[in-house]
């Protein structure tokens, strides 16, 4: 009798356990389906966010490219201008070096021309010409009827020309004259060389 009495309890317990297992399996399946839906939704949302960020990055890259393209002509012109200025400065420096070395021209002719020009600018006044002692000794006879004063300060060649009262001075020292004439010479050189 014990065997028959325990059987219905065992059958019932097995059925309860089987039913609980079915419910647990159904809940597990439902959780898997919900998890799959959540994962798919999250993946879709992540893809949308990725597409938005990708579109923003592409738009930003396009703006940067267009900005760089727009700035390119100005940058090219700036670099060209810098290069032209460097070339012109090197010409200026070489001319100054050659003037200082008295290279490529006749110093006596240059001094005579500088004094003659000053004489034309101050025709009504006796002139005093300040020269380096070496230039006065070497070229004084070629400079005409003017009063000479040795001036050790005139070391780079050329002359300082003063009127009789010493109120008007023409600085025709070679470096000073180059500096005075350089803007026009620079323009001409650039034009002749096709740099402008």
Describe the structure.
By secondary structure, this protein is an alpha+beta fold. It folds into two domains: 101 residues; 88 residues, hypothetical protein PF0899 fold (2-Layer Sandwich). Helix content is 72%, strand content 9%. The protein has a four-stranded mixed sheet with strand order 2-1-3-4. Strand 3 and strand 4 form a beta hairpin. Helix 1 crosses helix 4. The longest helix has 100 residues. The radius of gyration is 49 Å and the shape is rod-shaped. The mean pLDDT is 88.
Q: How much β-strand is present in the residues?
A: 5-15%
What is the typical, i.e. mean, pLDDT? 88
Outline type: rod-shaped
**Tally of distinct domains:** 2
Question: Into which percent range does the helicity of residues fall?
Answer: over 70%
Describe the main β-sheet briefly: 4 strands, mixed
**Poorly predicted sequence stretches spanning 5 or more consecutive residues:** none
The helix/strand class is alpha+beta
Main β-sheet, spatial strand arrangement: 2-1-3-4
Instruction: Please count the beta strands (DSSP E, at least 2 residues each).
Output: 4
Secondary structure layout plus pairing:
Blueprint: H1 2-101, H2 107-121, E1 128-131, H3 133-139, E2 147-150, E3 158-162, E4 169-173, H4 174-192
Parallel strand pairs: 1-2
Antiparallel strand pairs: 1-3, 3-4
Summarize the structure.
The protein is of the alpha+beta class and 196 residues long.
